[in-house]
Amino acid sequence: MFDIFRSTARPKKELFFRKNDANDVRLGEIVSSQAEDYETAEIVVLGCPQDEGVARNKGRIGSALAPDAIRGQFYKLTNFGINARVFDLGDTIIQPTLEETHDAHTAVVEQVLRDGKQMIILGGGNDISYADGAAMAKVFGAENWVGLNIDAHFDVRADFPRNSGTPYRQLLDERLINPKNFYEIAFQPQVASPIYHQYLVDLGVNLVSLEEFQTMDFTLKLQKTLSALDTSLAAFFGFDADAVRAADAPGVSAPSPIGLTAEEFCALAKLAGESSDTKIIEFTEVNPNFDIDNRTTKLVAAAMHKFICAVK
Q1: Which DSSP symbol is given to 204?
Q2: Phi, psi (5° rounding) for residue 168?
Q3: What sections of 186-289 are H helices per DSSP?
Q4: Are 98 and 46 in contact (CB under 8 A)?
C-alpha cells in the first residue's frame, strides 16, 4: 500500500491551539495528527503549500503560506456542533517542479480517498484542483464525479506550461471529468474571457455567473440538482477565495470589490457537508501576505467548521 506518511510532512505542533479549559475546548486540543489515529478518522486535512502555479500565471505570490495560516485560525475554534473525527495529515512534500508536486499530491489524495475518508484540502494555488480532480477520476472514474469550481475565474486557460489558471482545462481536455457534471459557479464576466466562456458552453458545462447566483435561490437549486444526480456520483467542491468580495476576503491572489459574501461562501461549504456524496472540499488562493486582521484565513476556517458540522 502507498505510504501517505512518507509523502507528507507533519503539521507544526504550535499550530494546534490549546486553551486548557474543560469548559471551552478548542479544535487544536482534539484534532489529531498522530499516525495511529488515522485509521479511525472520518475527515482528513491535507495542505499543499506552494504558489508556483500562481507565479507562472503572473499572479501575486504568497499562497504557499496559506495552509499553516488557515490552520492557525481553525485550531482556535471550538468543537461546537462537530461530531466527525478529524485528522490532520500535514502537507504534501513539495517537489522540484509543479508537475512533480501535482503527481505527488494526487498520489496522497488518491490513497486517502481509497481509505474511505472525506478530505479538506488547503492550497496553495488553484492549480492543485487538477491534482485533486485527477485523484477523483482515478478513484471513482471520470464519469462518476461532480466538480464545482466556485470562483471569479473559469480557470480553463489554454496555457503551457500549466499554471493556476489551467486546472479545469486540463481535467476537461484529458477527459477526467464529464463536462455535464462540471459547474462554474459565481464567475465574474469582467474577468472572464468570452472565448473561454464559449469553450465551456460548447462542452455543455453548467455556468452560473455571480449575478445569477446572487439574484436567485441558487443554493436551493444546486441542492436539488445534486440530489437529483445518480447517488453513485462523488462530489468535489473547489473554493477559490478569489470568489469572495475583498471586503470579506482581502488576502487573496486576485482581489475584487464584488463577489460572494462571507455568508454565501460559508453556506456553500455547509451545503458540501450536507451532501453525503462529497469527497473533497478544497480551499485555494488565500494569500496571507495581503490579509487584514486575518480576515481571509478566519473566513476559510469558519467555512471548514461549517462543512464539518454538516457532515453526518
Answers
A1: T
A2: -80, -25
A3: 194-203, 210-214, 218-228, 262-274
A4: no
**Does residue 2 belong to any structural domain of this protein?**
no
Task: Determine the straight-line distance between the first and last CA of the chain, rounded to whole angstroms.
Answer: 28
Q: Which helix (H) or strand (E) is 74 found in, with range?
A: helix 66-74
Q: Is residue 64 part of a domain?
A: yes
Could you give the maximum distance between any two Cα atoms of the chain, in Å? 57
Pick the closest to residue 185 from 131, 146, 142, 128 (CA basis).
146
C-alpha to C-alpha distance for 70 and 63, rounded to whole angstroms:
11
Question: pLDDT tens-digit profile of 15-55?
Answer: 999 999 999 999 999 999 999 999 999 999 999 999 999 99
Inside any domain, residue 1: no
CA-CA distance, 77 to 37, in Å (whole number)? 21
Q: What is the CATH number of the domain that holds 263?
A: 3.40.800.10
β-pairing, 43-48 vs 118-123, is parallel
> 3-state class of 153 per DSSP?
coil
Beta bridge partners of 149: 184, 238
Q: What's the pLDDT tens digit per position in 75-125? A: 999 999 999 999 999 999 999 999 999 999 999 999 999 999 999 999 999
Q: Domain tally for the chain?
A: 1
Contacts 24+ apart (CB under 8 A), 188-197: 188/152, 188/153, 188/256, 188/258, 188/259, 191/152, 191/153, 191/254, 191/256, 192/152, 192/153, 192/154, 193/154, 196/154, 196/156, 196/157, 197/154
In this structure, how many other beta carbons lie within 10 angstroms of the beta carbon of residue 12? 13
β 278-284/234-240 pair status: parallel
Angle at 303 (CA atoms; ends 167, 72), nearest 5 degrees = 95
Q: How many CB atoms lie within 10 A of CB 29?
A: 17
By residue range, what is the domain housing residue 84?
8-310
